[in-house]
Amino acid sequence: MSRTRVGGMAVSLLLLSGMCAPSWAEHPAKSLMRLSNVGSQAQELASGARGEDGGSLQTGTPLPSWLDELLASVPQSGPTQPNAGNPQDQIQPTERVATPAKGPVQEPVTPVQEPVTPVQEPAGPVQEPIAEDGEFPRPRPIAPLYTSPALEGEGVWSPEGMPEDAQEKPLLYRTVYRPSAEFPNSVVHMVVFDMKRIKVRFFVGQTEPGVYHISEPSIREDNSKIVAVTNAMWMQRHAKGAGAIFRGQEVYPMVNGMATLVVYRDDSIDILEWTDDIPRHLIKDARQLRHLIVKNGRVVEEVAKGNKVQDAEIGLGGFLVDNNGVSTMRNKFWFLANRTAFGIREDGNLVFAMAHHCGTKDLAKALVLAGCKRAIHADANIHNIVCNFYFRGDKGKIVKRDKLSPDQLNYTMKRYDNGYTKDFFAFYER
């Protein structure tokens, strides 16, 4: 994705808010999914042949010695006890999810691999959520994969240094986590918003073609209530036909089956696979991009498109670059990049994640551990990833700014003060 310049669009910060979405929105477009069951079929065969005592057929007929030796090498079935301190045990088996396509979907040749094993034992058991005055419970801590070198505050959700309401109660929590067992330097910074007290607005970028189809592109919000601003999705030319709705007006046609972040007119929010069954009159804003990276609380490993099954890694249409602006697409690990994503939790709260040197599936894994049931990829590359926090003083005047990740570029902290060339989301206190 090419670097864009700041424009002078007379659009102030917008935001998208959300509580729990309507119940009908919990049923996204149907798609093909396959759970990983490698090993369980072998266990069933073993128990069926051996019987409960593991030494003879259920009819009582003695086993031939060669078959007994063969079955002895098959793991026995039975319940396993997960390690309460292991964050991998919090992740359900991965799925392969297929986006809707014309014609029958071909079954893949290779099975889905089981989740990777952490390279180090986590430090201590996972604790229950900590309630803050019974209003905005802190998410449960995530036990680290790595104990050395230690990363300060890893997996612990903290309100320290974050925007608060007038009663000095936290509006959001943040944490940092290393989700990858293969790449220890993959780091994900996350923030969870209290969507009962925050609303979100979507803004279309000044240079995006669709802005000319909007009758009121300069709608303003009350910046005295601003809490945060994040990047949105990719530029439209990289998004392969992704749809968008702005204040009820369709900017780009919506695509069935595509991952979609939706803001409803009641300021609730959801992330789902788009379907025409969703009533348009209930939608305020919506933005689409590719496929869900988390579905049903599980990391999406593969997607089916037409008659092909593809890896779920997302490559920004071949425009991923490193911090020096050099394309990563010729590298063996081309997918290690700066990325962002949004996830929706069961409690209706939204999580924004910013990852460095990270692949799509490890980013998705971090969101699953943060309690997200569905997630959508957002923008990528170091000059495009932004999460700014705003601190207000008397009469709502902004007196301080901060950023989610120390690796976010400093010049982006004032990017959205007067609108911007690309689309973005703004978060306001209700």
Give an overview of the whole structure.
This protein has helices at residues 40-50, 65-72, 360-369; strands spanning 33-35, 95-97, 172-177, 187-193, 198-203, 226-231, 244-246, 249-252, 259-264, 269-273, 283-288, 292-295, 298-305, 308-311, 337-345, 350-358, 372-380, 387-392, 398-403, 424-429. The strands form three sheets. Strands 1, 2, 3, 4, 12, 13, 14, 15, 16 and 17 form a ten-stranded mixed sheet that branches. Strands 5-20-6-18-19 form a five-stranded antiparallel sheet, with no helix packed on it. Strands 8-7-11-9-10 form a five-stranded antiparallel sheet, with no helix packed on it. A hairpin with a 2-residue loop joins β13 and β14. It is mainly beta and 430 residues long. 7% of the residues lie in helices and 27% in strands.
